[in-house]
Amino acid sequence: MLADKRILLIIGGGIAAYKALDLIRRLRDQGASVTPVLTRAGEAFVTPLSVSALAAHKVYRDLFDLTDEAEMGHIELSRAADLIVVAPATADLMGKMAAGLAGDLATTLLLATDKRVLIAPSMNVRMWDHPATRRNLARLLADGILVVGPNEGPMACGEFGPGRMAEVPEIVAAIGAALGNGPLKGRHVLVTSGPTHEPIDPVRYIANRSSGAQGTALAAALRDLGARVSFITGPALVPPPAGVAVIAVETALEMADAVAAALPADAAVFAAAVADWRVANPAAQKMKKDGTGAPPSLDFAENPDILARVAQMGAGRPRLVVGFAAETETVVAHATAKRARKGCDWIVANDVSPETGIMGGAENAVTLMTAQGAESWPRLPKVEVARRLALRIAEALA
Ligand code: C5P
């Protein structure tokens, strides 16, 4: 899968550095060559000898190693690779990357490269949750850095929470995806996103506060795993991602038609906030005050439930149908009922009460409801929620 790919692997100074040794083996098993770089802190956790023996390659350690500069300068070293992987990516390394510092070999390579960079963060849960790390992560994501993990679980320091480095198979999958060889290669995935606008008259409409951020991030994450994505979007605040087929719609009825036209698909994810009701007979002309002071009355008609329709369509149904449930109370109970009512495979439930700041915000805290039960994820950037969900979709379609 990774035949002839050249990976520059930067091993940072964290307890998860031992997993980098296994990562080197797995990458070489798949045909990749690994050029290892060990930071000074990394050397406290794994020895240069183990790293170079497993990589069957010289290990680079010091920016001012003149022999290395004579053999291969740091600029060339950073560009000879197809992909740069940082595992484990410590809070310190992430901070330096976000700030553009270049005080040692690893950070100089990261600043000098013209290749994509994938990081596998690993740190104590408090460090991961610290506002400084949140800021640095947001900066790195905005800079186009790819991130895999961290996972939630027991940590070497005895605490529990997000911060464990992603497992080696997950990192290998993310590397394959970053190199355009993703697990969703050859799959067609349909994503609905954004709000719908339901016209009242030619100038007024009924809408909702969906920004389209989560659906957009999801479409990008599915694309990054190699899927062909049909992205059916209402009038969203965020622009659609590059590299997907964008079908822009306005109303729920248009969205339903666009979804039907985009099928068949291997998976369909309904992240749109579709209006349940439309104005039955929108006025052809702008509605005017009639002078009596009496408010106008609107008649409503129910919109088709696009998710339920696709989930229950029988022949031609996508293998995996995923709905979203935005709730403001008793999230899990409502989502469980919704999953059964709609007939979809998974529901991604989240609490959109105003105090959570989730609707229109950059982060999301979701519970994934599957046939196996409810799985609560930590509060994460929407981009990271999207990546995790895309990986789960890839596993389900494998
Ligand atoms: O019933 P509710 O609107 O809470 O369900 C939310 C889920 O159903 C979302 O996945 C949404 O995209 C989908 N939906 C739909 N068509 C509708 C209403 C909701 O596809 N008319």
Question: Which helices and strands occur, and which strands form pairs?
Answer:
Layout: E1 6-11, H1 17-29, E2 33-38, H2 48-55, H3 66-71, H4 74-79, E3 83-89, H5 91-99, H6 105-112, E4 116-121, H7 125-129, H8 131-142, E5 146-147, E6 151-154, E7 160-164, H9 168-178, E8 188-193, E9 198-199, E10 205-206, H10 213-224, E11 228-233, E12 245-248, H11 252-262, E13 267-270, E14 277-279, E15 300-302, H12 306-311, E16 320-327, H13 331-342, E17 346-351, E18 363-364, E19 366-370, E20 373-376, E21 380-381, H14 382-397
Parallel strand pairs: 1-2, 1-3, 3-4, 4-5, 8-11, 8-13, 11-12, 13-16, 16-17
Antiparallel strand pairs: 6-7, 9-10, 14-15, 17-19, 18-21, 19-20
Helix pairs in contact: 1-2, 1-9, 5-8, 10-14
The structure holds cytidine-5'-monophosphate (C5P).
The site of cytidine-5'-monophosphate has 14 residues, from helix 12 and strand 16.
Structural notes for this entry:
The protein is of the alpha/beta class and 398 residues long. 34% of the residues lie in helices and 23% in strands. The protein contains 14 helices and 21 strands. The strands form six sheets. It has an eight-stranded mixed sheet with strand order 12-11-8-13-16-17-19-20, with helices on both faces. It has a five-stranded parallel sheet with strand order 2-1-3-4-5, sandwiched between helices. Strands 6-7 form a two-stranded antiparallel ribbon. Strand 1, helix 1 (17-29) and strand 2 form a beta-alpha-beta unit. The chain starts with 5 loop residues before the first strand and ends with a helix. The mean pLDDT is 91. Bound molecules: cytidine-5'-monophosphate. Residues 192, 252, 270, 272, 274, 276, 303-307, 323-325 line the site of cytidine-5'-monophosphate.
